[in-house]
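Ops channel
N.P.: pipeline sanity check, posting one input/output pair.
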């Protein structure tokens, strides 16, 4: 008996909700800012993990790797300061920003192992079954 290993990928996204606030002005002198708060949908995360579990049980597959899918969030602030006295002008600019990544889904590498006869193993290798059974990689839209 030989072992035949089949692998496949599952991509799941569960997303987040976003709430954005912006400065009331568009003047650099007054300062321009924008802030966005993101909240992960934990109920959707649990539902997607349950789907993964059900799929693995139904197809007798095991999870070999689980990788997070992320997207980035940023915040930027800028302000221009000027000072004018008579015919002299002085100016300066300040600013800062930050960024972080947020988990919005996962990619799971799945594996199915079956024991087959030597003849079946040779038949599958000769027909290129291993290459045909590997699905193309695709990402589910967020």
């Amino acid at each position: 008996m030989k072992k035949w290993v089949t692998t496949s990928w599952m991509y799941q996204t569960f997303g987040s909700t976003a709430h954005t606030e912006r400065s009331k002005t568009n003047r650099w002198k007054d300062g321009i800012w924008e802030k966005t708060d993101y909240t992960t949908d934990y109920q959707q995360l649990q539902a997607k993990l349950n789907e993964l579990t059900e799929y693995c049980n139904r197809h007798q597959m095991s999870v070999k790797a689980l990788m997070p899918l992320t997207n980035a969030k940023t915040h930027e602030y800028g302000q221009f300061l000027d000072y004018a006295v008579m015919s002299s002008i002085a100016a300066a600019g300040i600013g800062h920003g930050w960024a972080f990544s947020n988990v919005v889904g996962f990619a799971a590498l799945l594996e199915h192992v079956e024991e087959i006869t030597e003849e079946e193993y040779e038949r599958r290798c000769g027909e290129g079954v291993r290459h045909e059974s590997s699905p193309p990689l695709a990402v589910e839209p967020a």
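N.P.: looks fine end to end. The beta strands are 2-13, 16-22, 32-40, 62-85, 88-116.
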